[in-house]
Amino acid sequence: QQPVQSPQAVILREGEDAVINCSSSKALYSVHWYRQKHGEAPVFLMILLKGGEQKGHDKISASFNEKKQQSSLYLTASQLSYSGTYFCGTEPELTGAQKLVFGQGTRLTINP
Amino acid sequence: DTEVTQTPKHLVMGMTNKKSLKCEQHMGHRAMYWYKQKAKKPPELMFVYSYEKLSINESVPSRFSPECPNSSLLNLHLHALQPEDSALYLCASSQDQFPHTGELFFGEGSRLTVL
Predict the structure, then answer these.
(1) Cα A14 to Cα A43, A58, A60, A108, distances in angstroms
(2) DSSP 3-state percent helix, strand, coil across chain B (nearest 5)
């Protein structure tokens, strides 16, 4: 079942912060985050595993609330290069066919 | 080499044509994937190969036929496609099939137009 992302679109000025949310109705094993720029392939950002661990690199971090089956992606002091569409992908817990299902995406536009 | 290479980048075909999309990776990954992506939509999983065997087919119409000749190559054979099959076809690979803790490496995609 497809995870739900919010918001669908965000427009920011350079230097502002953004939060993108991803929620699932199923118990999750992991949440993945990818960014896709227009005309390019999706690029991996990070994985969060069951256990609620927060991860991050540079000014992009993410958390995974296992109890709520929700993940949030935090972009601080946004840069122009952060523009693109962000997809979360979820893997269900170890039952049935294991596959990654992507949310509908959040389009992030960073203006100077 | 951390690349997934897809050819061709663009393909235009008629509904009666037979064509193939190719994907190659040399990272030693044991799982390879085909995704379909329509404009402004997320990638949708089509097929998964694990250790050169088809492990997931997401009820894809038989006009799409995947093939994994070896651990580095993945093909998608196309025959009698419909205009609604026009999309970006993305190939990806990962160390192992889900569940996994590694990333998916995506190719740049093959943009297919069916006339």
Answers:
(1) 21, 16, 14, 11
(2) 5, 55, 40
- Residues in B lying within 8 Å of A, measured between beta carbons: 4, 40-45, 48, 56, 58, 90, 97-99, 101-109
What is the tens place of the pLDDT at every residue in A27-53? 888 899 999 999 899 999 999 987 766
Give the chain B residue whose CA is nearest to the CA of A39: B108
Specify the 3-state DSSP secondary structure of B53. strand
Q: What would the two tokens of residue A59 be?
A: 């000014």
Count residue pairs from A and B with Cβ separation < 8 A: 53
Residues of B in contact with A34 (CB under 8 A): 104
Torsion-angle region of residue B55: left (phi > 0), alpha (psi -120 to 50) or beta? alpha
Cβ separation of A47 and B102 shorter than 8 Å?
yes
Q: What would the pLDDT profile of B1-36 be if each residue is shown by its tens digit?
A: 669 999 999 999 998 899 999 999 999 999 999 999
B88 close to B6: Cβ distance less than 8 angstroms: no
Q: Closest Cα of chain A to B92: distance in Å?
A: 10
Which of B43, B45, B97 is the closest to A42 by Cβ? B43
